[in-house]
Amino acid sequence: MREAILLLVDIINDIHDVIAAVFGVNMTDKQLHFWVFGILGIIMFFFVYVMFKIISKMRWSIVILSFLYTFTVIVVLVFAIEIQQAYTQRGNMEFADAVMGLWGYIVFFAVYAVIAFIIYMIVQLYKKGRDDNRGRHAR
Asked: What is the residue extent of each domain of the chain?
């Protein structure tokens, strides 16, 4: 994991240098960050907005949005813990640990989804049976 983060840091530093050379000749590092993250953030906002508008029209939209939000928070927590382990030297910083942490959430969510679906189907069958019985008694 340490190698992956160092590679990512090198790539980000190279991109930073290119952006600074092309656009940031007279900008401080803070000004450059203001513009880059401002532009990147607004592009991401519009992408997320369009995707969430599409998702909001789906049957299980709140579940999907809750899953995506929680997954995002879990990604941040997993990598924060891995970085903390490298910084404090209390544990091994490995990419595989981060991946397994994310898989843990996905597996637990899948178990929840299966249980919720089974309960939903039982309730639907019960309602259908109850509605069918009302129709027979009304005749």
From this structure: 1-57, 59-139
